[in-house]
Amino acid sequence: METKPLDPVKRAFLGSFDASAISKVVIVGGLPRSGTTSLDATLHARSDTFMCDEFHELRRLETRRFFNRLQHYHAGESRHWQDSEGRTWRGMGPDDYRLAAAHSLTQTLLSFSDPKKFRGKHSAEVDVFGFKHPRIEVGAMMFHNMFSPVQVHLVYVAREPVSVLRSIWEMSWTAETDPAVFEESIQRDYAQSLQHLQSLEGRGVHCHVFRTGLDTIDDLLGCLELDRQVESGEIFSDTWPSERRRSVEPIPDDIVERFSNSETVVAFRQAMALSATE
User: Fold this and answer.
1) pLDDT for 67-96, tens place per residue?
2) What radius of gyration, in Å, describes the C-alpha atoms of the chain?
3) Which residues are CB-neighbours of 219 under 8 A, at least 6 positions away?
4) Among 36, 82, 154, 245, which one has the highest count of C-beta atoms within 10 angstroms of its own C-beta?
5) Alpha helices in 203-232 (DSSP H)
6) Nearest-CA neighbor of 21 among 128, 143, 145?
7) Residue 130 carries which DSSP code?
8) Distance between CA atoms of residues 135 and 26, nearest Å
9) Residues 20-63: pLDDT tens digits?
10) How far apart (Å, rounded) are the C-alpha atoms in residues 75 and 64?
11) Cα angle at 133 between 129 and 139, to 5 degrees?
12) For residue 151, what are the CA distances in angstroms to 26, 75, 130, 143, 145?
């Protein structure tokens, strides 16, 4: 796959970036319109933290292959695989594991980080790396294993489900026009998300919960064992401009009430310590 020349600012940053020096990896996720973009931007404002864009926006084929193969490795598949230099990652020791994690971090930066994010950042000062992965609960085991040589923190952003329902309904990328069908699909997303999170806890993988509009960035930084370097305050999720919204009638109140009182949404609120307010 042909790649574009690196932006000069990006090139300068990567030229002195030592991925093996990363001490922590922070991965932010949650259902759409829950506040992940705002939290990503807030963490990136720290001088020692570099947050990439969304993980699913990887474009370079080789990088995608690297992550996929490493995922297969952790899934316990029997086949071996080799990188472009003929090295196999089967039976990796601690040093090799760190090399693999460092390689994946570097390739991630090369693949999809917005060059504007490099401005004002000095790679020598960066020791916390992160990115967004909207369905973090689905890929959590892969991330947890992939970057195990360093401290991995998974952050699940939770917002009141009714607010999420209304917000996604208005987004331009929402194709569904039937409010009832749309409500059922969002409810299935919440059911799946809650199931995956509970499964992770059963396997000893913990996700820090960040409740949009309730928790402050200080609360989260304390959980992540990071010094406060940004202003304290609540995180809000309405960061998308109006042109990214579509012109639709509001979801009928009876459908919103059904969604709000559903067993799935009630269980999600209880698990996330959310109250039924918007």
Assistant:
1) 565 555 544 444 444 444 444 555 566 667
2) 20
3) 210
4) 36
5) 217-223
6) 128
7) E
8) 14
9) 888 899 999 999 999 998 899 889 988 889 998 787 655 555 55
10) 16
11) 105
12) 9, 20, 11, 11, 11
